[in-house]
From TrEMBL:
It comes from Morus notabilis. One of its GO terms (biological process) is gibberellin metabolic process. This is gibberellin 2beta-dioxygenase. Signal peptide: none annotated. One of its GO terms (molecular function) is gibberellin 2-beta-dioxygenase activity.
């Protein structure tokens, strides 16, 4: 039984291309810029060992984190607590999970955890050439109970990974809050295992890399995202109005600011548009952790005059989903400007 989701069928349906059942590029294809021409760069690199040293080193490290969050919205960290052994185990276990028959993937975790493509896509430019398991943190520990789909090994690996990155996310969020002079306990109180997520991604090789994104351009609707992207590149982000490709660093985790932190910081920290491009030859795996609050959590700018209206996370998510359904894309924070 095939393990791949029906991405080829979705592509043909949305593009209208049915040339003997084969893919071909023609003048009606999506008008994407040539992603292969995007310059590659190294993100700001921060050594978290400095946080364990003297006061001068700690403050310098915190300043680096805040500065990167303001100027880039993205940075990478080393000495983060995830060993190379655990990283490799995470990749191998993901590969095994994604190689299962498609119908088994829907049964792997709780209902709705397995996703592929873009369910709301109405045209080719909205299709994401990827599949994912999107799992709430509090479901990970018991995810292997009572079934024999190989979840126990995967679950224990996910638990080790999630325990470390969730602690790291809180530490980074508290540092960023502290640099604003804001309440650093906010995240401990509002971002709970039931509201934070681990997302395992697979981007299959794609026969039409110039036409389809692995993940279409977007910003993250959370506070912080922590990404383990393994060896294969594909992540691109906007810097100074231009798309740039992130060079993979096998020793580092990639951190990016989400919409909620931009609003909470009153635009001090930046939630930056990013995307994943497809690859014709190789598939790509990554694992992301999302630091999210409960739906009832109120997001309010830390100082006045506020750039954004006060809103709950529920209101934000509902507005995003409404826009995606109606327009085919997310508008996000501009909807909540004062």
């Amino acid at each position: 039984m095939d393990s791949d989701p029906p991405l080829h069928k979705a592509y043909k349906t949305l593009s209208g291309k049915t040339v003997d059942g084969k893919f071909s590029v023609h003048s009606g294809s999506a008008n994407y810029e040539h992603v292969a021409d995007v310059d590659e760069c190294d993100l700001p690199l921060i050594d978290l060992t400095l946080l364990e040293l003297g006061e001068v080193e700690r403050e310098e490290c915190k300043s680096q984190i805040a500065r990167a969050s303001q100027e880039w919205g993205f940075f990478q960290v080393v000495n983060h607590g995830i060993s190379r052994e655990l990283s490799e185990k995470m990749r191998l276990e993901q590969e095994k999970a994604f190689k299962q028959p498609l119908e088994n993937k829907y049964l792997k975790f709780s209902a709705g955890s397995y996703r592929w493509g873009t369910p709301t896509a109405t045209c080719l430019k909205q299709l994401s050439w990827s599949e994912a398991f999107h799992v709430p943190l509090n479901n990970i520990i018991n995810s292997g109970a009572g079934n024999d789909n190989g979840l126990n090994t995967l679950s224990s690996t996910m638990e080790k990974f999630a325990t470390t990155v969730s602690s790291l996310a809180l530490k980074l969020a508290e540092i960023l809050a502290e640099k604003l002079g804001h309440d650093s306990t906010f995240f401990q109180k509002n971002c709970l295992p039931s509201t934070c997520y681990l997302r395992m991604n697979r981007y299959p090789s794609c026969p039409v890399p110039s036409e389809v994104f692995g993940l279409m351009p977007h910003t993250d609707s959370d506070f912080l995202t922590i990404l383990l992207q393994f060896q294969v590149g594909g992540l691109q982000l906007v810097k100074d109005g231009k798309w740039i490709a992130v060079k993979p660093n096998p020793e580092a985790l990639v951190i990016n600011i989400g919409d909620l932190f931009q609003a909470w910081s009153n635009d001090v920290y930046k939630s930056v548009e990013h995307r994943v491009v497809t690859n014709e030859q190789v598939e790509r795996f990554s694992t992301a952790y999302f630091l999210c609050p409960s739906y009832d959590t109120v997001i309010e700018s830390w100082c006045e005059p506020s750039v954004y209206k006060k809103f709950s996370f529920r209101e934000y998510r509902q507005q995003v989903q409404e826009d995606v359904t109606k327009l085919g894309f997310k508008i996000g924070l501009p909807r909540f400007l004062v």
